[in-house]
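User: Assemble these into one structure.

Assistant: Restating your components, then the assembled model:
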Amino acid sequence: MKNIVILISGRGSNMEAIARSVLPGAKIAAVISNRPEAKGLEVARGLGIEALALDHKIFPDRESFDARLMQEIDSFAPDLLVLAGYMRILSDDFVRHYSGRMLNIHPSLLPSFTGLHTHRRALETGVRLHGATVHFVTPDLDVGPIVIQAAVPVLPEDTEETLAERVQAQEHRIYPQAVRWFVEGRLEVDTTGHVHVRDASAAPDGWSVPPVEP
Ligand code: GRF
């Protein structure tokens, strides 16, 4: 059985999508939020998942908070750490500790629009396609080997809200998919930082490129 720990800061809709997707051989061991008021904590408890808060505001600095958070996470012996709307910059120690077993979702087609307000910036820039990316976490913010992406059209009448809604619907599809691949042991990052998804039907040493998502 593989243990998954999910970090959130808010609504937790991605966490919920992952928790509701059937993951044979995996268990959501805990959901942890750095914000005690995060709505996702209640959602997780409603799904029968252990959910706890560790308030970053009571720690003097990022390093001490991350050190404590690592202790908390590691008490659940995670095979995979999933960042799902976790709104904190991670210390280098933290990233190193979970290297190769930490995924994040970012609401843009990386490498476009790293950072915040991605939907607004997509509208301002006039791109015709926008979307979401699941990637392995590396020390640089929103950069890291890309596991899966989904694109949505940007429509002339779009507002930040309507675009966000369309992107989130895709997030809820691709994040559970990426987690499933990880749990199945099918993800491999090569020396150039490209992710390969091993095809279940391929020979043990055969690798396939990730499927193109509509
Ligand atoms: C998502 O849009 C995700 O891409 C970004 O933060 C948002 C979290 O939403 N990192 P939720 O808490 O999963 O509903």
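The pocket of 5-O-phosphono-beta-D-ribofuranosylamine is lined by residues 8, 10-14, 40, 84-85, 105-107, 132, 168, 171 (CB under 6 Å).
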